[in-house]
Amino acid sequence: MPEPSVIVLGLGNLLLADEGLGIHAMRQLEQSFRHPNLTYCDGGTRGISLLPYVAEASHILFLDCIAADTAPGTVIEIKGRKLRVSRGVKISVHDVGLAELLTLLVWRNPKQRLHLIGMVPASLEWGTELSRCVGQKMPVMLRRAEKVLKGWLRRS
Question: Which of the residues 12, 72, 116, 146 could staple to 122 if both were Cys, CB 3.0 to 4.6 A apart?
């Protein structure tokens, strides 16, 4: 079995408080979790233009701020088929680009492993710091991300 090619893709806008959550999480994870088959990427809000960077990966872990009708600070995971069929359901607060990217990824490689870990924002106001609520829940999100990555990379 070939070794996995894993990308952790941090998504968001660092100028809008919790909207930058995915990038903050990706940067923290990059400092604490390394593996030769693992690449970290700051995807910002580029959406579909990220396709050339992630299309050939066997596994992609998306870290993002998630729009959901639940309490701020709630960590949410969507994986595999559930993530792929989420068209029409708003996943990310900047969903248009992510929805298009997911559609193209699935079309190009239906066997690609996709997993999204995110959190419901408390603030989308101007600011470069995470809200207290989201900052306090960040360790939960990072532990979940590490668990997913260890599972994927253990097979290599």
Answer: 72
